[in-house]
Amino acid sequence: MRNTGLEEAQAGIKIAVRNINNLRYAGDTTLNAESEEELKSLLMKVKEESEKVMASGPITSWQIDGDTVETEADFILGGSKITADGDCSHDIKRHLLLGRKVMTNLDSILKSRDITLPTKIHLVKAMVFPVVMYGCESWTVRKVECQKIDAFELWCWRRLLRVPWTARRSNQSILKEITPGCSLEGLMLKLKLQYFGHLV
């Protein structure tokens, strides 16, 4: 069985009377300890199964029994980019780039004159926005990221309407023509509130 021996280990973080030393995800395990020595003892128990390690702290390399364990600065887990410092701006940027790729792949459909504007808007909302919003419930969105999200949404609507960036049209006129109802940022906020149980 995976991670055998972790339950019996004394190392870990004490919460109430329980000793928590690991959190398990699909194929990964997060080890928790109060000191580097405790963490190394936990890592010894799963050493045979672990290929890579990511530490959130000043530790840059691991030596266990003379073997150097490879450390990662970041990795992708379940479609989200996890970094050692916990910053989610990289993940937001990555999802915006993935959304751009999906939007450009839809070009032939969006340029078709046989498809009505409301249908094209629904396509963008159904195929592009979910790619961008995946995992947004856990993001800490700062003002800079808000501006990037708004810029991406307007880029999508301008591309859908085939309005070049050189055309002198305001963002308000674009939004008035599209009438999206709720902005991409608003949809993200709604998902966050649903995740934390404030909306049904």
Written account of the structure:
This protein folds into two domains: 13-72, no CATH class; 85-195, no CATH class. A three-stranded mixed beta sheet has the order 5-7-6, with helices on one face. The protein has a two-stranded antiparallel ribbon with strand order 1-2. The model has no long low-confidence stretch (mean pLDDT 79). The protein contains seven helices and nine strands; from the N terminus they run ββββαβββββαααααα. It is of the alpha+beta class. A hairpin with a 2-residue loop joins strand 1 (13-15) and strand 2 (18-20). It comes from Muntiacus muntjak (Barking deer). This is Reverse transcriptase domain-containing protein.
Summed up, what is this model?
The chain contains 7 helices and 9 strands; from the N terminus they run ββββαβββββαααααα. It has helices at residues 36-45, 89-105, 107-110, 117-133, 143-161, 171-178, 184-195; strands at 13-15, 18-20, 22-24, 29-31, 52-53, 62-64, 67-71, 74-77, 80-83. Helix 5 crosses helix 6 (171-178).
Unreliable segments of 5+ consecutive residues: none
Which word captures the global form?
Answer: elongated
Spatial strand order of the main sheet: 5-7-6
Count of separate DSSP helical elements: 7
Q: Biggest β-sheet: count, sense, barrel?
A: 3 strands, mixed
Order of helices and strands: EEEEHEEEEEHHHHHH
What is the domain tally?
A: 2
Q: Estimate the helix proportion, in percent.
A: 40-55%
Structural class designation: alpha+beta
- Give the total of beta strands: 9
User: In whole angstroms, how far apart are the ends?
Assistant: 39 Å
| Mean pLDDT rating | 79
Report the sheet-strand fraction. Answer: 15-25%
Rg from Cα: 23 Å
